Amino acid sequence: MKNGMMKLKRNRFPIITFFSLAWLLAAALAVAQAGEADSPRAIQLKIGTILATNQGKNFDPRLAPLKSQLNVFKYQSYQLLKEETKDVAGKGDAVFEIPGGRSLTVTPQEYRDDRIALKVRLTRGDQPFLDTVVRLRSGGRFLLGGPAHEGGVLILSIGASAQ
Amino acid sequence: MAVTGTLNCQAAEGLLGAWCDGELKVEQAEQVKRHLAVCPSCRSRRVQLERLDNTIRAVLQRKAQEVRFDLAWAGIEERMAEKRSWAARFAERARLAFEMKRLRWAVSVAAVLLIGILALPDSYKAWLFDPGGGRTRIDSIDPHGRNVAVFRERETRTTVIWLFPDEEWDDEVKEESVSNNHVL
Questions:
Q1: Would you say the C-alpha torsion A83, A99, A151, A45 has a positive or negative sign?
Q2: What is the pLDDT along chain B (184 residues), one digit of tens a residue?
Q3: Is the Cβ pair B142, A134 closer than 8 Å?
Q4: Which spans in chain B are helix H?
Q5: Which residue is closest to B116 within chain A, CA to CA?
Q6: Cβ-Cβ contacts under 8 Å, B146 against chain A
Q7: pTM here?
Q8: Chain A residues with CB inside 8 Å of B125's CB?
Q9: How close B50 gets to chain A, by Cα (Å)?
Q10: Closest chain A CA to residue B174
Q11: A4 — contact with chain B (CB < 8 Å)?
Q12: Per DSSP, which regions of chain A are E strands?
């Protein structure tokens, strides 16, 4: 005959539940903080001004990194007119002079999750040509083309990286 | 209360039940045996326990004979062999999966994973949540009345904004330029 008493199991429920809820709360706080936009860091802007024409068959060797992107335009000749790099800190902007009396104003707006939001404005004198807000990955670039120049068109390579 | 060797009556009485069932270790069993040899009260207690055990056993055996165990086993085997519908099996698995004790650990694991993901460097986070390669996105565009096209070059996934020429505006600029030159 058994004479043992039933051993009561220690109630571990409160301890495990406490730690589970503590972890969940910490995770929720981390998510809330991650949701806030990072304050803009210094953003390096790189603008390349390219002249694309159908006159001759020349490809500027300095444009080798962009060769595959430029092939989509089907022009015969590509020449890098100039390349500029500017650093923008805080809420500033950078103005780049574009051939043909045009200017390109780039304003970094937001940096979050390794992506940079850029406000881009192309003007000719006081006349606006284009206003756009583009969101790209740090180190990425996009192309803006079309303005006529010297028998061809201008293609602007606009890139940004967070510093 | 007599004290015999290293085991007293109180201790021996507590071990009697286990000793009768043969559940004690060899040393403990020997101690109880030695105590019973010299303690009449504990021997009497042992006899009482054995009588009670025999009585209960007899009652249980009588009752057990009235139970149709063969039918019970047949029912159990039949239920084990029957095929339940997929819905019943799914419901059973879902019930087991969402038992409280499993949920507790699942919550902790999920929280740790979430914190781990959020602690990743931004570049890894971007890759994780945007495995498409971090495509450039146009949030807004205003060509001020001109025609514009936005497309993505397939091979390199480069986003292109193309402004189509506005002949009227371009002609006005040319005329103005010629006029200025003439004045000068």
A1: positive
A2: 444 457 888 888 889 888 888 889 998 899 999 999 999 999 999 999 889 888 888 888 888 777 778 888 888 888 777 777 888 888 888 887 777 666 777 777 787 787 777 766 555 555 555 555 557 889 899 998 888 989 887 777 889 999 987 765 454 444 444 444 433 3
A3: no
A4: 9-20, 26-38, 40-66, 69-81, 86-97, 100-118, 122-129, 167-183
A5: A27
A6: 129-130
A7: 0.52
A8: 113-114
A9: 9
A10: A100
A11: yes
A12: 43-53, 77-88, 94-98, 102-112, 115-124, 127-137, 141-149, 152-162
Contact between residue A9 and residue A59 where contact means Cβ atoms under 8 Å apart:
no
Q: Phi and psi of B84, rounded to 5°?
A: -85, 155
Residue that has been written with the tokens 């803006």 in this structure: A144
How confident is the model over A5-30, as pLDDT tens digits?
A: 444 444 555 666 666 677 677 766 66
Q: Among all residues of chain A, which has the CA nearest to that of B129?
A: A113
Most distant CA atoms of chain B, gap in Å: 140
Of A114, A117, A148, Cβ closest to residue B126? A114
Task: Inspect the interface and report whether the beta carbons of B163 and A146 lie closer than 8 Å.
Answer: yes
Contact status of A135 with chain B (Cβ, < 8 Å): yes
Q: How far apart are CA A90 and CA A97, in angstroms?
A: 22
Q: Is A114 helix (H, G, I), strand (E, B) or coil?
A: coil
Residue type (1 letter), B147: N
Q: What's the residue count for chain B?
A: 184
Contacts of B169 in chain A (CB under 8 A): 127
Q: Is the reported ipTM for this assembly greater than 0.90?
A: no
Q: Which residues does chain B have within 8 Å of residue A157's beta carbon, measured at their own beta carbons?
A: none
Residue A123 DSSP label: E
Residues recorded for chain A: 163
At A59, the amino acid letter reads: F
How many whole angstroms separate alpha carbon B77 and alpha carbon A135?
66
Q: Which residues of B touch A19 (CB under 8 A)?
A: 108
Nearest to A108 by CA among A59, A42, A158, A21: A42
